[in-house]
Amino acid sequence: MFRAFDWQDLIPLAKGAWLTIQLCAMSGILGIIFGLILGIARTSPSRIARWISTIYISCVRGIPILVIIFFIFFGIPLLFPGLELDKFASAVIALTCFAAAYVAEIVRGSIEAVPRGQSEAADALGLNYWAKLRYVVMPQARKIMVPPGVGFIIGLVKDSSLVTVTGLVELTHAGNIVTNLTGDPIMTFLTVAAMYFVICYSISLLGRLYEKRTGIQVDPLKLPEPASV
Amino acid sequence: MTVIFVENLNKKFGPNHVLKGVDCHIREREVVCVIGPSGSGKSTFLRCMNGLESITSGSIVINKHRLDDSKTNINLVRQEAGMVFQHFNLFPHLKVIDNVMLAPLKVAKVNKDEARAKAEMLLAKVGLAEKMEAFPGSLSGGQMQRVAIARALAMDPKIMLFDEPTSALDPEIVGEVLTVMKDLANEGMTMVVVTHEMGFAREVADRVLFMDQGLIVEEGSPDEIFSSPRNARTQGFLSKVL
């Protein structure tokens, strides 16, 4: 009844991996965009902006991601009866909601890590809030947020396995299906694990490359090299 | 003509009453040095003059702009009052020339060629023409502070505020920064300088203010303050630092 795990089984797993990549790319990019907006709002002089972002971030961080996934998947069709969401779209929304809150905290921490003197110097030159953010604070904060940001995106790839509960055939779900066909969970999930590893390791390599390419100029903590004789 | 009016200026940080009614008028082209012990409120006084610290009560008028009026556009005031910080606060991600060009480009919105020509002229003036393309991280403290002065001058301020500009520098490079400041004073810039450099205050200042515990305790010409201080606290302070 069961057959052995063979190379044909790689095809559904590869398809699942591709779906995981698409899912994480989309929710990662959207999460970064909304996270930037929320993180900037969190440090803005406007009290309302700070309030809204603080409430959002605290709420999302206080809810398990699985609950967010269930809520979006089952809740949205009930709340908005006309709205048809496929599994992929609801997974993207759930992961984006989740990612935005965590990215926002990374953005806030990075903005606050830029020395206060930088902001004061920009103020003293007469730069308005947005010019100060764009030309002085964010270029320096960007460098600070890359390492934790990369770490978070890697976490997001792994957490994306939870959307398997909605029936979306991403990598973990594909692994489940293949296990049912072959009865060989060891080979199947070793393969699944290897695929997750390749995705995550690639992201961390990309992150390191980015740091190397931008790191030369954008390092507020770097001390001047002693002049060589 | 008086360009800075400070009247009954009070500043509190929570329960901490830092400025307790400071009165001070500064005329155009005047060089005023503010001296006094640490914690006397001299830096806070200076920072209030371009809105880096909010005012608890009292009034400050800079070139007809009222700083205590919430309708005043603080960024306009800041364009007229350049500021130089103790720790330079250069932008480490921008080249020296871009540090100087940033405000003209993004605040005054002059075109790039004009901003560049101006920045080159200012960097030549502070003796750093050859460092234009360097990043601040590769400069010495004295060079960084001279870039910071050029950066503040790029907006053509009518007033320059200096917050202990040489306190973070090694003693042997203090001179190069003071020379630039002296030149500026000789050109007729209105300057308020919080400093511990008594030699500079004595030589360059038109007037010296001695602050202690949030008040201007004594003021006068450098000669009056340094040679014959009347107030006991001024005498005590000067006997320790001179």
Automatic annotation (TrEMBL), chain A:
Gene Ontology CC: one annotated term: ATP-binding cassette (ABC) transporter complex
UniProt-listed InterPro entries: AA_ABC_transptr_permease_3TM, ArtM/GltK/GlnP/TcyL/YhdX-like, MetI-like, MetI-like_sf
A molecular function GO annotation: transmembrane transporter activity
Record membrane topology: Multi-pass membrane protein
Bilayer-spanning residue ranges: 20-41, 53-76, 88-107, 144-166, 186-207
GO biological process, one term: amino acid transport
Ranges of residues in domain ABC transmembrane type-1: 17-207
Chief location category: membrane
Family from the record: Belongs to the binding-protein-dependent transport system permease family.
Name of the molecule in the record: Amino acid ABC transporter permease
Organism per entry: Pseudarthrobacter sulfonivorans
